[in-house]
Amino acid sequence: MLEAGFNSVNQFLSEFVKSLLSLVKVVIRGRHMARLPIRQLPVCSVLGNGPSLNESLADHFDFIQQTEVVCVNNFAHADIFLRLRPQDYVISDPNYFVFTEQTTDRDDIRRTLSIFLEHVNWPMSLYVPHFAKGSYLLGQIERGNPQIKVVYFNYTVVSGFRWLTYWLYSKGLGMPQAQTVIIAALTLMINRRFETIYLFGADTSWHEQIRLNDQNQLLIKQIHFYDKPKDVTHQPVYSDKYRQRTFSMASQFLSLHKVFRGYEVIRNYADHKGVTILNASAKSYIDAFERTQIKWPVASK
């Protein structure tokens, strides 16, 4: 009885401290409320870049095209990007926003920028964190392609009392920890008040590709649906800018824990907002969302 009471008080104090720290972060970093565009349809499809997306696009392209389509990060590298013509695109990788004309080691970012400038000839909203404002990449896009509307969101991680964090989420003043871009994309689409969100290409199977070499270096082979598997090899995952030390196995699995915990947080927030998230990925380790088989046609309003 005494222990239960102690645990209850300890939990309250922990949530109180987290809430207080979250409010301080919001005051310092999150003063710009996100202004999200009105949804175009009641249903959207969020497309991760996992290898299984190839199967989903082959089997369900017509279904996906009938929903509002949300792509992420380097999806534009795929030939199907120009056929799909997504209405929404989310980039949260901070490397995009330190990229400059002089950057020599990020051909993937240069390629994405080139595609945005030269080939996007339809209206598309590009969602990026507010700290990206003023970056070289966004300057090029805003000056070079009027079809792309940049939408800024706050990536201020907040936690604490659930009623407070949900209020901060809904006001665009904070987000759950977005260990992957999919978590950020789902948060944004929940706040745009879609009725149903379908998730494709969310394999979340990185643990299958973890290796340890004879020097105890952590290696990962990161395969995306647009890659040619024979061109992708296991590479060290460095923890320092001097590329001397890789992440430990413990830290790598802690990072994976944050990914899966983030999905649980998003599921609870979606339930609170009356939004249904359905995992339609051909392959996925995510257990937070209900798995589903595609039903056709999509109801329209």
Automatic annotation (TrEMBL):
**What Gene3D superfamilies does the database record attribute to this sequence?**
Alpha-2,3-sialyltransferase
* UniProt-recorded name of the protein: DUF115 domain-containing protein
Q: Which organism is it from?
A: Spirosoma aureum
